[in-house]
Amino acid sequence: MAKVSPYQQDLAKAAKLLPLSLTGNVLITGATGLIGGCLTDILIQFSECEVYALGRNRQRAEQRFQQYWNNPRFHFLEHDICTPLDCSVDFHYIIHAASNASPNFFVQKPVEVMRANLEGLSHLVEYGLQHHMQRMVYVSSGEIYGEGDGSVFTEESSGYIDILSPRACYPSSKRAAETLCASYNQEYQTRITIARPCHTYGPYFTESDNRVFAQFIRNVLHDEDIVMKSAGTQYRSWIYVVDCAAAILSILLKGKSGEAYNVANAESNITIRELAEKTAAIAGRQVIMNLSDNGNTTPITKAVFSTKKLETLGWQPLFDIEEGLRHTIETMR
């Protein structure tokens, strides 16, 4: 009998607290990504709905979802959301989690980042309007708040974004996509709700993911020390992917149409250096400072989120950052 990973145990723990009474067809875009994969895991294992997982890479999907690839309730759709959907399935619920959130894409493929966020959303909503869509969650990003002024981000916050910086491809297109959601709700009476996750971490991130948590975890999994190329003073809200996925499902089932909800863990606010130190300590490695990098860093020095609005839906995080990091490392080992 195969050993159950900490991640699988975490999924079961989170699912017990969710009203997973979904019926019909659920489409998850970005299904092979960090958040989309976790949403797929929860729904295929702990609900009765038909799960349609959409992604661009069939080989990665077969590897990621090997355990239920032949499950009759699991359906993989190989598709790029920058082109209209070409199928006839009625998706009653859509969770749009497809987006290039890795900083290397912001430098190398800023046009594709913007197209995925804007054209992808439009294609999905237009399809939903023709195919009996009941509810949709758009997975946006806490980056829409911009640089901020050091105060805690509430859903009404709005900070500065340098729109002519190539890196603005991500937060600017996420902002515009949220306005597009509001516009569809106004003009076509769609029921679209918005989730704004903070920095999310967990197992099964993609090979191309160069976010700091992924780099740190790769280091320790290769029995390497973590080399910091900056002081790591940026202060962030972090959330374990299982908590994030549970929050998004709560927003899908209970969130108010047209509203946005921050997704974060108020008990997991730390600097990037502290993240490195916690990751290294779990694996018995060290953090080495080598301050030489002046590359593509975010101008956001503090990004801390209020989750009071999300908590009114009955959601609470289950995993603090030490537990989430430990379960991530143990699962990937």
Notes on the structure:
By secondary structure, this protein is α/β, with parallel strands linked by helices. Helix content is 39%, strand content 17%. It has a seven-stranded parallel β-sheet, sandwiched between helices. Helix 5 (110-130) packs parallel to helix 6 (169-188) and helix 9 packs across helix 11 (321-332). The relative contact order is 0.15.
The helix/strand class is: alpha/beta
Based on CA atoms alone, the radius of gyration comes out at: 19 Å
- Give the total of beta strands: 13
Question: Tally the helices: what do you get?
Answer: 11
The portion of residues assigned to helices is 25-40%
Order of helices and strands: HEHEHEEHHEHEEHEEHEEHEEHH
Main-sheet strand order equals 3-2-1-4-5-6-10
Integer average pLDDT: 94
Unreliable residue stretches: none
What's the main sheet like?
7 strands, parallel
CA(first)-CA(last) distance: 18 Å
Shape: globular
Amount of beta strand? 15-25%
Short description:
With 333 residues, the chain is an alpha/beta fold.
Features:
333 residues, alpha/beta, 7-stranded parallel beta sheet, 4-stranded mixed beta sheet
Task: Describe the protein's topology.
Elements: H1 6-15, E1 25-29, H2 34-46, E2 50-55, H3 58-64, E3 74-78, E4 93-96, H4 103-108, H5 110-130, E5 135-139, H6 169-188, E6 192-197, E7 199-201, H7 212-221, E8 226-228, E9 235-240, H8 241-254, E10 260-263, E11 269-271, H9 272-283, E12 287-289, E13 302-303, H10 308-311, H11 321-332
Parallel strand pairs: 1-2, 1-4, 2-3, 4-5, 5-6, 6-10, 7-9, 8-12, 9-13
Antiparallel strand pairs: 9-11
